[in-house]
Write a structure and sequence with these properties.
This protein is mainly alpha-helical and 116 residues long. Helices cover 74% and strands 0% of the residues.
Length: 116
């Protein structure tokens, strides 16, 4: 009996390289897709948070305005009950003025500094 060689399977190096490249491409594509999804979700949630904050500021402003209007209506009601005419009487804060003697003393101090 002669020993004959059994046919050995040839190694397909090109097939192995193509399979590795396809696997690497799938891995890179998965990473890029994951990062893209993370960025899109992050930006979307940030935009929603901004809209929520804007809405809260707007509602607080509207609430403050409604309180001011309610207070003004209450003041006008009280004025008409007491007998004041709200059209004639203005509900404004009085202006605060500096007393004249303070400004004169300031001027005197400046003149004293110039004389020295």
């Amino acid at each position: 009996m002669t020993a004959s060689q059994t046919p050995a399977a040839s190694v397909d190096y090109l097939g192995i390289a193509a399979a590795t490249a396809a696997q690497t491409n799938a891995l890179v594509a998965g990473l890029i897709g994951g990062i893209f999804a993370f960025v899109v979700i992050g930006l979307g949630s940030y935009r929603l948070y901004q809209r929520y904050q804007y809405r809260q500021r707007r509602l607080r402003g509207l609430e403050a305005i409604s309180k001011r209007l309610a207070r003004a209506e209450h003041i006008q009601e009280s004025a008409t009950i007491v007998g004041l005419n709200p059209a004639v009487y203005e509900f404004t804060r009085p202006k605060t003025h500096r007393p004249q003697h303070q400004s004169q003393t300031l001027q005197q101090r400046q003149q004293d500094r110039v004389r020295r």
